[in-house]
From TrEMBL:
It comes from Solanum lycopersicum (Tomato). Its EC number is 2.4.99.28. GO terms for cellular component: membrane. This is peptidoglycan glycosyltransferase. InterPro entries: Beta-lactam/transpept-like (IPR012338), Glycosyltr_51/Transpeptidase (IPR050396), PCN-bd_Tpept (IPR001460). It is found in: Membrane.
Amino acid sequence: MQKYAEESIREHLTDLQKRFDAEQRGRKDWPFYYLNSKQINDLMVQAMKRTGRYKQLKAAGVSEDSIMMEFKKPIKTSRFTWAGEEEVEMSPWDSIRWHKKVAQAGLMSMVPGTGEIKAWVGGIDWQHFQYDHIKQGKRQVGSTFKPFVYATAIMKLGLTPCSTISNASFNKGTYHVPGRGGMLTLKDALAHSQNPVALRLAEMTSTQSVIQTARDLGVTEEISTSLPMALGSSDITIYEMVGAYSTFANYGNYNKPEMIWRIEDANGRVIKEVNVEPKEVMNPLYAYTMIELMKGVAQYGTASGELGRKGISKDIEIAGKTGTTQNNSDGWFMGIVPKLATGAWVGWEDRATHFYGTGEGQGARMAL
């Protein structure tokens, strides 16, 4: 499964990178949006100061001006491409900028019933990008957070997939989120990821209750108590998101995701053995209800179009949730099929790098 996960990321990101490069062609500020020249320079300088080359020169007592001159001199180097490593002549400064345009990804799959991690793809290429997007990286999760809000409403308010709630614009003081009006069932609201509904549910149950649900599902990262948290404003790891979604698939029992189960020495003596004990954090009926809600996302909601384009039959039972963050900086898909839960994130090193519009930048298009 690890091999298939790596191949799927390579295939998907090769195509996505071509689309992103086509959008960037001819732009003088590539690959950044909404930044002025000073902001771009500051971002580049920060990246430069994280490099081994900069740290070496600094340790040798070289001045900042001289270091910058060195970084602007063309040298023979290699750069990452999906067609293979490419030998080029370019300055270290331009090399930094080149690699900032490269789309990044992380993917993790686990067995909900045991906690066994079946696939862990922390990044696209360790030689050029030494960073793990599964457990080290935390990114804004967008609408993939909404199932925690819905689960809280089901538990606290006794709502069902057929319960209806207003989709009118949500107004709270100066905070305004437009809505399409009318009444929606919970299943339809989640399937189409309607923001006003998520905000109303969070307000009705309290954000503290939603946070407690997330905590019960294994999320330890900091979560804001303000209402926008219902739309996924918090930064959470893929590792914790997959563990949380697996709880829905495991009848409300949380299993900590584990990669290594048993360690033996050369003589076969057991040095360490992991015994995962499921923790019941949710009534099985509520967990089942959440799975039924999330099936709508794949059947006719925000993921249905992309699943159809990829030739995935609607007869295959998939529960899940898409997620898109501000300015299309992050694309998420959390998916559950029988006996497997998977989380995928696609984005860039910097949040100022992203697709311009939601056509290409929506979570389903980026991460599915």
